[in-house]
Design a protein that fits this description.
The structure holds three protein chains of three kinds. In chain B, about 70% of the residues lie in helices and about 0% in strands. Chain B is an all-alpha fold. Chain B has one domain (about 50-335): MetI-like fold (Orthogonal Bundle), CATH 1.10.3720. A two-stranded antiparallel sheet of chain B has the order 1-2. The two termini of chain B are about 15 Å apart. The longest helix of chain C is centred in the C-terminal third of the chain and has 36 residues, at about 250-285. The chains are: A alpha/beta, B mainly alpha, C mainly alpha. Chains in contact: A-B, A-C, B-C. At the B-C interface, helix 2, helix 3, helix 5, helix 6 and helix 7 of B face helix 3, helix 4, helix 6, helix 7 and helix 8 of C. Chain C: It is a multi-pass membrane protein. Chain C: This is Carbohydrate ABC transporter permease.
């Protein structure tokens, strides 16, 4: 009895203590602020004074919701940039909320319920849905900033960093957000493996990919692998190369099942069935849970992986400092669309300012600061691609830059198959089985057709 | 279950305690008010609103009722036209029926072993209960990143060292095996809870029964089917009810076993979460459909009701005719209120 | 202890017949040790060693732990989980016990209806409640505050608590209240002074169940704890795992798993018999 009483006492004491310790939960929620301030017109903000010391009026706190986690290299870079900002402008405080990739689920509810957010990474998954929360940055990007050496964001940024946000959100009026860390969807490969296999030039056609894979296999490498998370990319993109993106989007939306009976789908399935039979896919490809497959590339077991330019950062612990990365665009297929030369899925991470922020001037200053030469260098150090016209490229991505420069037609990841989230998992699963040699091309077509039929 | 919670033999001394004081009403109201308020605001209102919501097109979860558009049963039509949702229903049925049967049978077996007179009973019981107190996230990480891993995983290494190369090459996390793997992990994590309840129930059965049976020459198996099973009927039912409630809310294992929603692991709750808050994978915008999410809630609710009706039909309460047995059954039933 | 091992021949035979049972238990034990043990070893190795299956080849790497502890707000996560769990325990008892007492011992109009309602509520799935609750949280500007999860964890556990405690109160003798009444004790006072302490075994058992449930809760925390300052241990660990995987730091990921798992594990080793005893024994005494 006494023991139980003691336990009860401990429990209640613990409650009192914890309540006392965490007793100010409402501090983080000044909803009055969020509601009372009307969207401050950016034009009334200091657009003059291109020179001189940082303005003394730059005071206060900014809350920044980011898609990064604090322990990722990219997150660490952000933490450093925020610290540098606070050091440069005493009296300011940047509070970063490390939302991780779940930001694409948590941000809108948080904005809708009036949580304090001044700046946020605008997740592309929301499309134009957050338009009403994004301050029009047209004036801010034209405004000169000291941290940019008296230039404006328009002057220093790659043009695509201003264009891509409009594309990704489909909001063409004004400037909804500013991009950073541009990315491309490419075949990333191990240069050492290609050299050992005697491959002199990166594959441009499916035929050349076939030949390169054969050489890699002969040299003792597993030519290609992928993870469950990206299975629909390497596959969907083939269909896109074959029939074009609009066709794939129609295919994904099909509810009759007939469209999946199109000869093109069988041709696509045959191509991968052929690769599977030739043993070009790693033996574990059927059971790979992200990031097992990409780790295999980093460890040197597998040569190629179709992914984003951010891949080297994710596997750098296994790859080690000497790993050399190469990249090539998804090859063209016979009688296809000829995309390999200049078209690829591409995009950028976006930063937006909340239209309800109380301190637009400070938010604008922070936005400029993150694109200053020194911040950009810090991001590049973390393996992110530069957003500046005259920025440097991360050493491990040096060979990737030329591919970047060639791309001027922007496509969707997964070839457009992602446009229907209902069919995407079915497609992924069946493709994994196809690549693992568990089902035939015909079975793939049958499975897809019957799943699509409503 | 409903009538069982407050069995009729509870000695409520009504006459004495009724309306003696004028303040009695006030007292009762003040004692009941917080619970009733909680019932109204946290349960009744949301349930009603979700029911209503399932008949509307609602774009976002925080939208006011003003902006809802009435669409009748369209949301349900959407659900039944979706291969993904249908798969989530098959999955949950499998989790409930097959998973439930296997997990409860193993739990019973372990409970019988633990109470069979083995040494260090408390240690074994704690050991089996241990996974239940570990965070699901930690457990799933252990399973997916180690046990099932196809490069350095536990099963792969063990089978390899035993020379069973075909078993070593088994892809635990491939689409066709992922569901099985997930259920193994789920069983490991949840069995301890049921073992605890069942073992307590078996302990509550008088030893006289077993001794009498032993004199008649009954073996372990006969004892189990003749004595343990019938007397634990109510506890089994409680385990099934608890398991069903857990199965209907199956979510954590699904999301933690899959990077993004996939057929092998999708459950209705995952489907709802996706259609209400957005699909995390890919870079393409897909419209949110909160009304469909609400419809999923209604579907699960209907399933819960059906399951409960089915259980009441299959295992009606208080069927004990033998008055001597009744007190026993009552004791073991109470033991199961864990 | 010694005496326990001195068994006579008959006992030996009895134990021998339990061999299959022992084998099953032993299998479970070995599996658990390997599973958890490997994770601990991996957390002390490097990522490369994990992938090449040569754990600890280059000695112990405690820096994995330093990295996890330094970079993540583990303290905050643990404090939050403790706050949510403890307040859920106390809150549900404060709301549930009085209601259970009145419902199980007093006769009034609508008692049966209320009783049945609370039992029914226990089976209402969370998915049915979550959307309107989210809307309400936004309406009352509770999102982003720990108070929100405290309220939710309390209220959602009330029906079960009433159900659980009713049995305890109904088994207490009525003579106690009668005596209290004669002494001029008001019913409320009689409850808090006499009945509530008598139901303590049940209340402790209930607290343990609620504590474990809330500590490990995942769904509500995932949806409502959208800020670092609100995260529970479960969600915090998920963030650790996710970020370690994005940065390819698997050794760090396993270190995170161990850091989160170890305190609960150690506490369980010391308290397991008490927990088990209370949960089962407490319920049996009813």
């Amino acid at each position: 009895m006494s023991k139980k009483r003691r336990l009860a006492m401990i429990l209640s004491t613990a409650l009192i203590l914890t309540v006392a310790a965490c007793g100010s939960p409402s501090n983080s929620n000044p909803n009055s602020n969020a509601n009372s301030s009307s969207p401050a017109p950016a034009s009334s903000e200091p657009s003059s004074e291109p020179s001189g010391e940082p303005e003394p009026s730059l005071q206060g706190e900014l809350v920044f919701w980011t898609m990064w986690n604090d322990t990722e290299p990219q997150g660490e870079a952000w933490a450093d940039v925020a610290k540098a900002f606070e050091a440069k402008y005493p009296g300011t405080k940047i509070t970063i909320n490390w939302s991780g990739r779940d930001l694409s689920k948590t941000l809108k509810p948080a904005l809708e319920s009036g949580q304090r957010i001044d700046i946020f990474d605008y997740p592309t998954q929301y499309g134009g849905q957050l338009g009403s929360y994004a301050l029009d940055l047209s004036d801010i990007i034209a405004q000169p900033f000291d941290v940019l050496g008296g230039k404006s964001l328009t002057d220093v940024l790659l043009p695509s960093m201003l264009e891509t946000p409009k594309k990704q959100t489909d909001i063409w009026d004004g400037q909804v957000a500013v991009g950073y860390k541009p990315w491309l969807n490419l075949f990333m490969y191990n240069v050492k493996a290609f050299e050992e296999a005697g491959i002199t030039s990166a594959p441009k056609t499916w035929q050349e990919l076939d030949e390169a894979s054969a050489k890699l296999k002969a040299a003792g490498y597993s030519p290609i692998t992928f993870d469950d998370a990206y299975a629909h990319w390497i596959s969907g993109t083939y269909l896109q190369r074959l029939k074009g993106q609009d066709w794939v989007i129609e295919l994904a939306a099909d509810t009759t099942g007939d469209k999946w009976r199109d000869p093109a789908v069988l041709e696509f399935a045959k191509a991968f069935e052929d690769f599977a039979k030739k043993g070009y896919f790693d033996a574990n490809v059927g059971g790979n849970k992200w990031p097992s497959g990409q780790m295999d590339v980093g460890s040197g077991k597998v040569a190629m992986y179709f992914n984003l330019t951010g891949l080297p950062v994710e596997v750098k612990d296994v790859a080690g400092p000497d790993f050399k990365w190469g990249a090539f665009n998804y090859p063209d297929v016979t009688d296809g669309q000829n995309f390999a030369a200049n078209a690829a899925a591409a995009g950028a991470t976006m930063t937006a300012i909340n239209s309800k922020t109380e301190n637009t001037a400070l938010a604008a200053e922070f936005l400029a600061f993150m694109h200053s030469a020194e911040s950009d260098a810090r991001f590049v150090e973390a393996g992110m691609t530069t957003s500046l016209k005259d920025g440097n490229w991360p050493a491990e991505l040096a060979d990737v830059k030329p591919v970047f420069d060639d791309i001027n037609v922007i496509l969707q990841t997964g070839g457009g198959i992602e446009s229907n989230p209902e069919i995407k998992p079915v497609f992924s699963e069946n493709f994994i089985k196809l690549a693992a040699g568990q089902i035939s091309a015909e079975e793939f077509v049958d499975n897809m057709a019957s799943a699509a039929k409503q | 279950m409903e009538s069982e919670a407050f069995p009729s033999y509870i000695p409520v001394r009504r006459k004495e305690i009724t309306m003696r004081h004028k303040g009695r009403n006030l007292f009762m109201i003040s004692f009941l008010a917080p619970a009733v308020l909680c019932f109204l605001f946290i349960f009744l209102y949301p349930t009603a609103r979700t029911l209503l919501m399932s008949l509307f097109y609602v774009e976002f979860v925080t939208d006011d009722m003003k902006s809802w558009t009435f669409i009748g049963l369209d949301n349900f039509e959407t659900l039944f036209g979706s291969a993904l949702f249908l798969r989530s229903m098959t999955n949950i049925l499998k989790i409930w029926l097959i998973g439930g049967a296997v997990i409860l049978v193993i739990s019973t077996l372990l409970a019988v072993i633990i109470t069979s007179g083995v040494k260090f009973k408390n240690f074994w019981r704690s050991l089996i209960y241990l996974p239940h107190i570990i965070s699901v996230v930690a457990l799933v990480t252990m399973w997916t990143q180690y046990a099932f891993n196809n490069q350095y995983g536990l099963f792969k290494t063990v089978f390899q060292s035993l020379g069973l190369s075909s078993l070593a090459a088994f892809q635990w996390t491939a689409p066709e095996n992922l569901f099985l793997s997930m259920m193994i992990a789920y069983a490991y994590g949840s069995i301890g809870f049921y073992v605890l309840i069942l073992a307590a129930g078996i302990d509550g059965i008088s030893k006289d029964y077993y001794e009498a049976a032993e004199i008649e020459g009954a073996n372990q198996i006969a004892k189990f089917f003749r004595i343990t099973m019938p007397l634990l009927k109510d506890i089994f039912k409680r385990c099934i009810v608890l398991y069903s409630a857990g199965a209907m809310g199956f979510f954590a294992y699904s999301t933690l076993f899959s990077f993004s929603t996939e057929l092998a692991t999708v459950t209705p709750l995952v489907y709802m979460y996706d259609s209400v808050f957005g699909r995390a994978s890919g870079n393409v915008t897909t419209p949110l459909n909160v009304g469909a999410g609400a419809a999923v809630g209604v579907m699960i609710m209907i399933m819960v009701v059906l399951v409960n009706l089915l259980l009441d039909r299959l295992m009606p309460n208080d069927v004990d005719i033998n008055p001597n047995k009744k007190s026993l059954a009552r004791r073991s039933r109470n033991a199961g209120q864990v | 202890m010694q005496a326990k091992f001195k068994m006579n021949k008959r006992e030996w035979i009895a134990q021998l017949r339990l061999t299959p049972g022992y084998l099953v238990l032993l299998f479970w034990l070995v599996f658990s040790i390997v599973l958890i043990g490997w994770i601990i070893l991996a957390s002390l190795s490097t990522t490369k060693e994990v992938f090449s299956n040569n754990l600890l080849e280059s000695g112990f790497h405690f820096d994995n732990y330093i990295r996890v502890m330094e970079k993540h707000n583990l303290g905050v996560y643990f404090m939050n989980s403790a706050l949510y769990s403890v307040s859920a325990c106390i809150g549900t008892v404060l709301i549930g016990a009085p209601a259970a007492y009145v419902l199980s011992r007093f006769q009034f109009k609508g008692r049966k209806l209320l009783n049945n309602t609370f039992v029914l509520l226990m089976s209402v799935p969370v998915v049915m409640l979550i959307l309107p609750l989210f809307k309400m949280a936004a309406q009352f500007s509770l999102t982003g505050s720990q108070l929100l999860l405290i309220i939710l964890y309390i209220c959602l556990n009330v029906p079960f608590s009433i159900f659980f405690l009713s049995g305890f109160f109904s088994s207490l003798p009525t003579a106690l209240e009668e005596a209290a009444e004669i002494d001029g004790c008001s019913p409320a006072k009689a409850f808090w002074r006499i009945m509530f302490p008598l139901a303590q075994p049940g209340i402790v058992a209930l607290c343990i169940i609620n504590f474990i449930n809330v500590w490990n809760e995942y769904f509500m925390a995932l949806i409502f704890a959208n800020q670092t300052s609100m995260r529970t241990v479960s969600i915090g660990l998920q963030v650790i795992v996710q970020s370690m995987r994005y940065s390819g730091d698997w050794a760090g990921m396993f270190a995170g798993v161990v850091v989160v798992f170890l305190p609960t594990f150690i506490l369980f080793i010391f308290l397991s018999n008490k927990i088990m005893g209370n949960m089962t024994g407490g319920a049996l005494k009813e």
